[in-house]
């Protein structure tokens, strides 16, 4: 995922531009004293400058204050930028990426041939299809329901096929609007918080606590088994919950999820349950929130083919909105989500949908499980490595992420140290929230030889 | 039944379906009626009925149920019908196959789009107007981009739309919270400036009578009126935007249908880069309505009032709320812009253009007041004194043809019917014949 190239920007008056990609210092867009890295020579004028020969035209449209609240760039483009910068510094280094959780292994042939077949079909009269149902192709919706939600009372028409969980998260925010308050695990996947800020649900970023105002951060640490102490959590309208968790790798057990559903029921809240890593589960934990009785009345579930089928570039996911989920006035949430999907989206691409259907065939499921098994073996290697080096290591059993504790250290410092000394890209825990400070997330997606080599380098560094 | 995967170091074949689960199902409350305490988003409450096109689909289905033997012809939703040219489909198929190989596999792409594709878009569409590939953001289509632009702009901006216009501009504006309540008397949302476009003003708004808004949505060639704004008109528009410090969102999804020398891009107008965003799509250009591919141009020169570049915020939106268009669709896009692909696409466009000509000529031949069909694949037919839903129903009942009632595009569309020219030639010919019969 390439970060935007800042080099070509011209005579812009912003000083905030380059600093938008600097981490970890929190970025205050009002602090215009940040040094500007401008490649093209030009006249940089302050906003209120009088009209002169080389003035820059500005519209009279105010910048969205919510965008201005955001701190720095989105986390993963920043990681990509650091990786690129490192490669420039050490052009001969064999950089290994265990940072962005990007799948690396080829997609099983049973799946790609189905997609190729669909492509060729589009050039025939019988096989051509134009606009598809915005909710997704019927067969695929049915296959998702029967594969993942069988016997749980989730039906085909509760399923909305998408181009991925990240996009769905923003569409859910559009659905909820700016007047809701949300809770997130801390640490958590950054898209929940960032989309909440963009939507206008939050207050300003508070540098002292590294948190946005008006978001409830539910601390998840080794001490509480990475499950929040709900008795200390204030009521919010929406609760984002990811299990197996990105970045900690923790998987909530049945008791914990029962507690969560109870908490949501008592508070009249809606859980947005992110189950994108469910197929990585080894233990006997729920794979879907809907395994918990009563969840259909309090939860939405979002998931993805990205990490199951290597579809990170192909783009396919889904969101479940049960019919039983109602707003306070009794209006079904699914009806509003359907409206969003029809108005703000136009359906996932038909080709990935054909791939998705193949994924859920018996042969496809088996093939996906093999690839998942491969990444799980990678995870084990990484876990064993850090364990052997005496680190406190979490995750890895139920998710393709290893969450390594570096007590007392700044995670960006550790990230930089690992990058400088081993040429391995990881992800600093603080990028996932203040609860991630002092941790590093190591992702297990990679060719086996790269994972082995990275582990060899870790052993050398931390011997 | 979902078989749980096994970790490879565990014994295989172990079904881990939880035993507790069966018992707990009995306790599950299957009933409806237990509400959360989360208030419905008032913006969604404001929306009047469903989005227009699913409503048309619904009517189509109802009609098919009522008349199962009717040979229903759809000139309704502007959905392409002709197969994608073989070389383009083959490129996509090859790309898909390659994803199974180590050398050909790719994961996450740049959220802004594949760089080669971005360059090809610039080369093909913006060569003479000096748009850079770094200013092009590849998407999964214009409808999605419109909402992402609304997310970017936020709820505190005001918008102007042509009246009539593609419903996604108004609906997305309502959803994001820019609009006030819908007024039944005027059939308009408060706080949105509706710029009337009709035959009297040559389908170009009287800008002198238009109140300043932050954002101006402008589609040319227009959906639904099919009017392509002239160079002079667009110069006026750019001047108006400059004078008011507004941002134009220029929808050029139908630019490839232009026959005369009307501008194909807003950037053909000097000064536009500082006031305009342009959105476009492969949908009607290449038959990609299901494949999903489009793009948005945000010039570096476009600045908010504080001097902050709009492109920075759009990039942030695209990185946070999106994860890039499908890599297979992008491979298809690239093939569309190759010389072989482009030639094939042009033939397709000619095919639909010929459809439009046939349709428009037919309608005119029976004395109907018909516009369009020249620079866009739509015919915009006036039925003075009639209600467009009534005409829609009449045409459906008596000729078994689906169209789109003009009022679905705004109050300025009342009394009009939009007929789309996408269809197999035989269908278009048959539809034209039926319409001639109906209206002669």
UniProtKB/TrEMBL annotation, chain A:
| CDD domains named in the record | AAT_like
Q: Which SUPFAM superfamilies match?
A: PLP-dependent transferases
**Keyword terms, alphabetized:** Aminotransferase, Pyridoxal phosphate, Transferase
A single Pfam family it belongs to is Aminotran_1_2
Q: Which GO terms describe its biological process?
A: systemic acquired resistance, salicylic acid mediated signaling pathway
Into which family does the record put it? Belongs to the class-I pyridoxal-phosphate-dependent aminotransferase family. LL-diaminopimelate aminotransferase subfamily.
Q: What is this protein called?
A: Aminotransferase class I/classII large domain-containing protein
Please report the organism this UniProt entry assigns to the protein: Rubroshorea leprosula
Automatic annotation (TrEMBL), chain B:
Listed InterPro entries = Aminotransferase_I/II_large (IPR004839), DapL/ALD1 (IPR019942), PyrdxlP-dep_Trfase (IPR015424), PyrdxlP-dep_Trfase_major (IPR015421), PyrdxlP-dep_Trfase_small (IPR015422)
Coiled-coil intervals, chain numbering: none
Tell me the Gene Ontology biological-process terms attached to this UniProt entry. systemic acquired resistance, salicylic acid mediated signaling pathway
Any one GO MF annotation of this record: transaminase activity
Domain (Aminotransferase class I/classII large) ranges:
71-421
Q: Which cofactor does it need?
A: pyridoxal 5'-phosphate
The keyword Nucleotide-binding belongs to this UniProt entry's keyword annotation: no
Pfam family name, one? Aminotran_1_2
Keyword list (alphabetical) reads:
Aminotransferase, Pyridoxal phosphate, Transferase
Gene3D superfamilies in UniProt: Aspartate Aminotransferase, domain 1, Type I PLP-dependent aspartate aminotransferase-like (Major domain)
Q: Which domain of life is it from?
A: Eukaryota
Question: SUPFAM superfamilies in the record, alphabetically?
Answer: PLP-dependent transferases
Family membership, please give it: Belongs to the class-I pyridoxal-phosphate-dependent aminotransferase family. LL-diaminopimelate aminotransferase subfamily.
Protein name as catalogued: Aminotransferase class I/classII large domain-containing protein
Query: Which species expresses this protein natively?
Result: Rubroshorea leprosula
